[in-house]
Predict the structure.
Amino acid sequence: MSLLAPLFLAGLLGLALPWLLHRFSRHNPTKLPFPSSRFLEATTPPVSRTRQLKHRVLFALRCLLLIALCFLFTNPFFDAGADEDSTANVTLLLDVSLSMQTSDLWEQAQQRAQEAVDAQPAGAAVELMTFDSVLAERIALTTELSSVKSEINRIQPGSSAADYGVVMQQLDAVLSARSTSNQVVLITDAQIANLPSQLRQMVAPGIDQLTVIALNPTDAVNASLRAEAITEDGATARVAVTASLTTHEPPQSPIKANKILRVAHDDRVLREVPLFLNTEAHQTTVIDGLPLPAVEPVNLTLSLVESDDLPIDDTVKVTVREAQPVELSLLSLTSRIEPVTEVYLTTALETGGRAKVVPVAGDLASIGSSVPHLVVVADLRSFDIEGSGVADYVRSGGNALVVQDASVIQSGQVTEAVRIGLIEYGHPLGLGEFDWLSVRFYQMMADGFADKARVLLATTTNVPILSERSIEGDSSGRLLFLADPLDARASDLPLQPAFVELMQSVLDYFTSTSALPSRVTVGELVSLPANTQLLDPQGDALLDSSKTNTAQDIRPSDPGIYTILSKQHGDQILEVMTPASESDLRRMSEADITVWERNRPAVVDTDEQNAVKLANSSDTNSVESRLPDVDGSRYIELWRWLLPLVLVFVIAESLFANQRLSVRRDGS
């Protein structure tokens, strides 16, 4: 038997309490007058008194209750191991996400997969599965290993992102239904960016033995592009390009690379711009005054002149859209807005020319509902939603982002740096697409402003950073809280690329009125209403024409410019981009991979909201020290039996205690 939290055994010291109660409890008997006491011979009172345990059955029940409670909190489990007489099935699991196209990774993956098949004994049953964002079966369980090897040679990686948490849970659901021993050989590039937010998703009890083969391309370096293009006059465009540079292994010193960015329309080169990249930070380049051809729509191709180890994300195609800047009013409910906060907010929101931030004076009563979107700077520690007028503003259909006021943060209150630990992946903001691993927080507002809110981002210490609150009553607006003063002292959030991406996502969230998306990533689910058709970049229809009279869901499999044909919304361009997470080549450490292979419930950190423990832990012993030192992988958790046992002891103790209850009717 192993314990996940053995420190709770210290609670056994509490056994001294019932022993003291039953050993030294005093009960003075009632004195009754005895008229003939004068005829009794006087005796000397005893100097010592013998004390014994009283009510031993009740004492035993109380001790057993405390022992059961202590073991319940330690979460004990038995390692059942695998049935020696059972037949072992081998599941070969191949990562076919976009990053597997890096350098010679796929050749390595095929070679290691072939070696894994050849290593199986005669008569072994092997099945072949692949995964990116979902699990797919390629070859069912078979003893014909030649068919498995042939299929390995035919498989090619796709363009979707991988999600280790989703895949492990899907695989566990398949293997748990089997009565045989299940061995899994997982071949992947072990990207940090593909780790789930909740580490318990990495545990698959249905797997008896997990072997992770983490591939490593030699000296792989990848530069990737993200871009948007807008036009105000139809003759020239403004193109915002974000470029990043990553490597598989963390370099001892920053790696730099000089690239040439080429902007073209069809075969015509419109402009070439130099890029100076390094592995420490993203670079954002804005190209103004780009001449446009007289065609509609204008689709631009942005590419790096010299490709790298992952060519697919060196090119991005975007459609030039008409600029319709969204106006956001910036209002302070305190004395003033700190200049640094105003600069960070304005710069992030106005990136790409999609928004215009206008500072306003006064209060919400004077502004009214004429302003559709509002950024409010206030002290969240004493913020009154109703009294400030924000609640009425949101009820009227307005959207508000409330940011912590930097002027109330005192210097010198720096705590130990913490990171993002909780990410709400299901929210339309798409927070899972941003790089939160580099963000650090030093001063946090751990007050009750988020008590009635849905927490979207929180630190590893469970302090809310971003939350959304619903307003009671008929409300059509949206209300977000950002508990960071954005002064670059309380945190480095405003200095990170994730902040610009967050503000742009908030802008999209506030202005999302169309039922049809304009930009998605490869593999992302696109829900299309009835009477809608989707054309791929080559102009071919992707939906069965006989089923377009009903709503359908589709996942685009390749990047490019798609066209949505809709009777209700009209024709619309859909940009399908490569997943940003797949361009990040950073790899998990060997210690983290070992933790993953052990496939233990103890791999889950005691802080369930720690989303980046494996990805960022510099002290890997902090994770491994909680792992039981046993082999095998099937475990039987005992809390399901201990919990009803504790309930039985509680009921029995109450019954026996009531029987031994003495009521003093004399009021003493």
Notes: The CA atoms of residues 226 and 600 lie 38 Å apart. The two ends are 51 Å apart (CA to CA). Confidence is low (pLDDT under 50) at residues 82-86, 602-633.
